[in-house]
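Example record used in the benchmark description.
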Amino acid sequence: MRLHRIVGRAGKCGPSAMAAVTGLPTHDCAALLREVTGRTQIHGVQSYELMAAMALAGWRCERTLHRGAARPTLAAWLRDHDTLAHSFVLVVRHHFVAVGGADIADSGWMFSRRPQPLATAPHRRVRVRQTIACRPDSDP
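Model output (structure tokens):
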């Protein structure tokens, strides 16, 4: 699945990754995260909170944890997964990035807000802590 360009006023990584996958503006994603967490501001979220907000937006998510020495690098993870079939939110360095199609997008901290090709993306040696596979509820 292709990623969307990240647009909107919220600049944190959780709303940005969610916006890249869903196509919603980041301020709408932050509103969903505020609804889920009960907080008045979003400065950081946990993966289960992001998954609950994605469910409110009409997306199903499945999480996979990578522990300790079994954490693959981003390059190794990309070799083993089909990013054309699903969109993914990856947790790297306690930071959310979106991967889908042949692109990667971020809040601008590690990668660009505009989806950029995976082949030219920097930081390919960063370790992947968690993988969240996302698909719309309308998909079988």
